[in-house]
Amino acid sequence: MGLRTRTALAAAARSRGYETPQDDAIAECRAQLAELDCSPPELPDPVDPVPESTIDGLQEAVATHRGRLTARQAVGADDEAVQAALRDAATELSERETRRAAARETRELRRERARAYRDTLEKQRRLADELANLRRNARATLVDRCADTFARAIEAVPGPVPDSPFNADPVTAALAVLRVARTPAPVVLGTDQFRSPTAASDCLDAPVVRC
Amino acid sequence: MLLVVTYSRAARRDLRNVCRAHEDCVVRQFGRAALFSETEYGAFQALRLHEKHDLDVQIEHVEPFEPTDVPKHVREAAKRYEARKEPATPYGRFASGRDLPDPDQLRGVDL
Fold this sequence. Notes:
The complex is a heterodimer. By secondary structure, chain A is mainly alpha-helical. Helix content of chain A is 68%, strand content 0%. Chain A has helices spanning 5-15, 23-35, 52-74, 80-156, 170-180, 197-204. Chain B is α+β, with helices and mostly antiparallel strands. Chain B folds into 2 domains: 2-61; 67-107, no CATH class. Helix content of chain B is 43%, strand content 16%. Chain B contains 5 helices and 4 strands; from the N terminus they run βαββαβααα. Chain B has helices at 9-21, 40-53, 72-82, 91-95, 103-107; strands at 2-6, 26-29, 33-36, 57-61. A 4-stranded antiparallel β-sheet of chain B has the order 2-3-1-4. The model of chain B has no long low-confidence stretch (mean pLDDT 95). The A-B interface holds A 40-41, 43, 114, 117-118, 121-122, 125 and B 7-8, 54-56, 58.
């Protein structure tokens, strides 16, 4: 029988309406956890970056064509072909620059959203840790408050008497926890330690169903 | 190097498994993070984790660092502050009145 006696005893203490100094913080922690939106964000598809070398090359080409155009115009030579080449290079450069800007923007957006999401996950982790700590402390408080009652219950229920209450065998411990707890719903017993259902009901102070 | 950080239990478990199975591309392993070597194989292993766990796996480029990569006044400030006589003095108070940058000034400057 896998009984975690202290956890069960803490639940029994709760059934008796016991509270702990940690209760407010526990509720606060739970509320904060519930408020966190941990769904992964939609990210724009990644865009391949435009290599700097491409832009550099195009800038160089534009400068070269411009130089050639100036030279041809200075000597009054035909500059139509050079003008066309300059236009093409300039158009291509401007397209690539636009694409580079878009790629950078997408990259930043992806990083921002991913970071915000991971910040939330981190917060969730911290809150979950905090909640676990608080609940552990609350459990210890509850077990402390019930320790004497539990010791008396161990003596009252049938079964071998242990050297200390928390060393009781699981069945005896479970019965003692049940005696400590307020149990409005019927208890189902799979043990033959009681002489009769009535004896069980009296000892555990709980409704017992005979199966 | 590549810094791989995990944000879920499942991702963390897989990171541990990758680190165990592919030691050759792992430079260092921490609890839920690891440094992979700056190789295509290191990137391959990091991307596998990212494919499987999406945003629960963060991959960052990490550069090697030497103190000399930082301006001299910053190094000097760290050195003198750590040699201070009164351990309880916060840096801001320590810096004022001395020939040292104040913390806000440091915060405002990218490396």
